[in-house]
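debug: dumping io for the single-chain case to check the tokenizer round-trip. Nothing else runs in this session.
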Amino acid sequence: MKKIIFSGAMLVLAASTLCTSCIGSFSLFNKYANWVSNVTGNKYLNAIIGFVLSPAYGICLFVDSIVLNTVEFWTGEQLLANAGKTTPMVGSNGDFYLLTTTETGYTISNETTKEVAYLHFDSESKLWSYEANGVTTPLVKVNADETLTVYAADGSETIITNDAEGLATLKAQVSPAIPYMAAN
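debug: decoded output
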């Protein structure tokens, strides 16, 4: 009997090495746990609700493990992205911003000046662009060979590798007049 248990444990351990780096984000489970933690303003009541609804944790974990994380691993996309999530931020200039995640990028609202800008990702062209005051400016494009085309404000383009060396190349070419791109 001990030999069977030991063999089974070794089989599970060996199989687990095949699953490294593809754990996934467990987005459904984490969203459910976050909801249970914040369903009311009372942590004791939240604990009771979480206990009563505890079978849902197993269901969420099963769906994440079998379906959502598998899709995320093979496609590289989360089925349950944080679309609609808003994060408050304070800029280096002291202005207050709201960053809202959308299905295709981000909406950036300057609550101090009431200006709104958009960062948009076009999945067909694999292009990130910036839109403000009705003007759309391309920023970065992911090329077929996984290099990046970076568009400068003057209209010039630089192709870099998608790694630390490519970032170092870009930093060396960027003018100090553009501090947001020169920052670490």
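debug: round-trip ok. Residues 37 and 43 are 7 Å apart (CA to CA).
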